[in-house]
Amino acid sequence: MEIRALKTFLTVAELGTVSHASKKLNCVQSNVTSRIKALEDELGVELFARSRNGMMLTPAGAFFRDYAQAVIDAETAAVASVRNFSNAIRLIRIGSMESTLAIRLPSFIAEFRAANPSVKLELCSGPTDDLIPLVLDRKIDVAFIGGQFRHPDLDAEIAFSEEMVLVTDKSISHPGAVGSMPLIVFKPGCSYRTYAQGWMRKSGLAPNDVIELGTLEGILGCVASGVGATLLPRSVVESSRHRPIVNIHALNDPDRFIDTYAVRNATAPANGATDAFIDLVCRARTTPEIITPDFGQRRPA
């Protein structure tokens, strides 16, 4: 049973003639007649009594009319609910790398909630490789990941650009002094870990060991204690309470800037909440100059 047939039935019942119904429905009279006939055949009853003066509902047609109207009302409400949801601020499920969630996103979350007090936020953190499947499976609406990830079902916008730096305890005065110190990093799947290990290899440094930790403060605490070295975004280190007790070493590496992307599933239904939050974050992107003292180079943040 088609929605179009029910709408045609209700229009004929309201106006009383096929010709008037065809004008309101913007179709030819034969289409109106064929839809009514097909509906009657499907139901196995006559819905209208035909006469020279028009069409009147039969008892069966009058009984069926309320049910047909209920179906049309339900269809209208269903369509409206989806359309409203695409523009309404209802729910945002945000996934993010821990560093981005800790340093970059809090101010945006606060601003967004102040402007949209009815918003509901669900937050989770994890490495890039864990966040991508969550977006593809529609378990989160947006993920903030490190580095570009190409997939036909993903839309991506640059949200931030992070400058990677080497971080050591105060006794290390230059990158070469790192030698074979252990490299302290997040678990596999983290884009910053991938960069750190690649930079160590390119620089001819061979750490004896890789130490995996689960938190930024844990990593920086161990670095400050001389347990090992790490590579992290400058913004993370500068914001940490450990900043006074660690050294930051700028890198002479053209690839040291890693973009953070806001990615979402391009095949997911429209969600106005997600769109609004991503717009807020990405519109605020600025390009201040960062001066790297070791090499005197400048690069947009």
TrEMBL record:
SUPFAM superfamilies: Periplasmic binding protein-like II, Winged helix' DNA-binding domain. InterPro entries: LysR_HTH_N, LysR_subst-bd, WH-like_DNA-bd_sf, WH_DNA-bd_sf. GO terms for molecular function: DNA-binding transcription factor activity; transcription cis-regulatory region binding. It holds the Pfam family LysR_substrate. Signal peptide: none annotated. Keywords: DNA-binding, Transcription, Transcription regulation. Residues 1-58 form the HTH lysR-type domain. Gene3D superfamilies: 3.40.190.290, Winged helix-like DNA-binding domain superfamily/Winged helix DNA-binding domain. Belongs to the LysR transcriptional regulatory family. This is LysR family transcriptional regulator. It comes from Stappia albiluteola.
